[in-house]
Specification:
about 120 residues, mainly alpha, about 0% strand, 434 Repressor (Amino-terminal Domain)
């Protein structure tokens, strides 16, 4: 087993990811599995610092659910009010009101809290 070293740059990251690919079918409780777990933790830590992924906005949550369900934006008109208002909400130009959040929750199965969070509250 090669020594496990820190991931300091993207070249190190690429090498670690390549090694992880080689180790994916390692037997349980083997030194290779231990190496796989250690490298995975290092990759996760490096990526969290250098390639953070922010939480989606409420509009992003709605758009993602529409895409997942294969629905068109027009189905949101009864929940939001008009085609123009739907476009503004999905462009993050209009906030989702509590009444909209309730209707969207019922239509799309999204937790109301996800739709009403302010950006600072989502950044955990």
């Amino acid at each position: 087993m090669p020594p496990i070293t820190a991931i300091n740059n993207d070249d190190d990251l690429d090498a670690a990811l390549e090694r992880i690919g080689e180790l994916l079918r390692s037997p349980e409780d083997s030194p290779e599995e231990a190496e796989l777990l250690a490298l995975s933790d290092l990759v996760e830590a490096y990526e969290a610092i250098h390639y953070p992924i922010s939480d989606p906005t409420p509009a992003g949550v709605v758009q993602g659910r529409l895409d997942a369900l294969g629905l068109e934006e027009d189905c949101l008109i009864p929940c939001i009010g008009s085609r123009e208002m739907v476009a503004e909400v999905l462009a993050d130009q209009r906030p989702i009101t509590p009444a909209m959040a309730e209707a969207l929750s019922q239509l799309l199965g999204i937790d109301v809290g996800e739709l009403l969070q302010e950006p600072a509250a989502r950044q955990g």
